[in-house]
Structure formats: structure tokens, C-alpha cells
């Protein structure tokens, strides 16, 4: 985990319901309180009941609002139709993997070693095997917050959203540290 304290601010400007700009500032993470851990776990329990559909909604929103993110997905990067994307078995598998990884992290909010282990695996795979620019983790974090807030407004209240923001800041910070540890640089990424 990132040892520094942090502040994370997601700012989204919208026009006609679409995200035109996402700014994520990661200064220093602020640790979660016990109350925030409980809020995250309680809200996630409801989200995870529909894990595949929510995961697909997150990926579709990511691809629609940030089309450049599709470059990392050879199986469906050329699919333009969102209905076709939603039906893609490859997209559904990846959505399920993302949701399972988040679930493991949420279940282990009080186990920093387990969280660090999961984030190290995710970070190394995305840095070394997939050459994903780490900025996409920040973008994905904003999309996750947006989708959870829209799809689960009773469960993801402003206070819960704030707790999720702190958690996602920690995750981004930790993933950035893994990228630095393995020596990833934009120049080392494939153009693939």
C-alpha cells in the first residue's frame, strides 16, 4: 500500500449526460476509517449481487466516454456498436474479472497484505503483459464511481461515494507504485 497520506478529487463535467472531462488529482491518500470500510463493504454487497451486469455497464461506459481505452482490448477494440459490445463474451469475461478483483479487495479492506498482493498481480499484468497506461486506472476509478452512484443511488450516498473515492485513490496509488517497481514507462509500452 502507499505509505503516504492522500487526497483524491474526482471532478466530472457533463454535457448532455456524457463525461467530457475527468480530472483525477492524487496528492496523498487518506486512510479509510472503520466506518468507511463498513460503508464500502455494505454498498458493495448490493452491487456484487449483479456483478456481471454492473461490470459490463462500467466497461461500456469506459469505452463510450474514453474510446482510447479500447486500444488495450484486441478481442473487441474494433466493435463500435454498444449492443454488440454488451453481448461480447470476451467483454463479459473481463467485466467479471474486474468485479471479482474489486470484490477480493473489498473483502480484505482490513488485510493490507492481501490487498497489496492482489494489486501487485493486477499491476504487473497490466504493466508488463498488457502495457496499459496507468492513467486508465484513474479514469476507470471515475467511471466506477459514476456508474455505482447512478445504478445504486440508495446505497452509494455522498458519504459512501466519498469512502469509495478514498479507496480508489489508495488503489491507484498502489498500482502506480507497482508500475514504478517494474520500471514501466510510456516509452516501454507497445504500440499494439
TrEMBL record:
TM regions (residue ranges): none
Residue span(s) of domain Globin: 31-180
EC number, UniProt record: 1.15.1.1
Keyword vocabulary terms for this entry: Heme, Iron, Metal-binding, Oxygen transport, Transport
InterPro entries cross-referenced by the UniProt entry: Globin, Globin-like_sf, Globin/Proto, Globin_lamprey/hagfish
A Pfam family that the UniProt record links to this protein: Globin
Record-level Gene Ontology MF annotations: heme binding; iron ion binding; oxygen binding; oxygen carrier activity; superoxide dismutase activity
Class in the EC hierarchy, top level: oxidoreductase
Record-linked PROSITE patterns: GLOBIN
Protein name per Swiss-Prot or TrEMBL: superoxide dismutase
Species annotation: Nothobranchius furzeri
Amino acid at each position: 500500500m502507499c505509505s503516504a497520506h492522500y487526497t483524491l478529487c474526482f471532478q466530472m463535467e457533463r454535457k448532455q449526460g456524457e463525461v467530457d472531462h475527468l480530472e483525477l488529482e492524487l496528492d496523498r491518500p487518506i486512510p479509510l476509517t472503520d466506518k468507511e470500510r463498513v460503508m464500502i463493504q455494505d454498498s458493495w454487497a448490493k452491487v456484487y449481487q449483479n456483478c456481471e451486469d454492473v461490470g459490463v455497464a462500467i466497461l461500456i461506459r469506459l469505452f463510450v466516454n474514453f474510446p482510447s481505452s479500447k486500444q488495450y482490448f484486441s478481442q473487441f477494440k474494433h466493435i463500435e456498436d454498444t449492443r454488440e459490445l454488451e453481448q461480447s463474451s470476451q467483454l463479459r469475461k473481463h467485466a467479471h474479472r474486474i468485479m471479482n478483483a474489486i470484490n477480493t479487495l473489498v473483502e480484505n479492506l482490513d488485510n493490507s497484505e492481501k490487498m497489496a498482493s492482489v494489486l501487485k498481480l493486477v499491476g504487473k499484468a497490466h504493466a508488463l503483459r498488457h502495457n496499459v497506461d496507468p492513467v486508465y486506472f484513474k479514469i476507470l476509478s471515475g467511471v466506477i464511481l459514476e456508474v455505482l452512484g447512478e445504478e445504486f443511488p440508495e446505497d452509494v450516498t455522498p458519504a459512501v461515494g466519498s469512502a469509495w473515492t478514498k479507496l480508489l485513490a489508495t488503489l491507484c496509488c498502489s498500482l502506480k507504485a507497482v508500475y514504478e517497481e517494474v520500471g514501466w514507462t510510456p516509452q516501454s509500452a507497445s504500440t499494439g
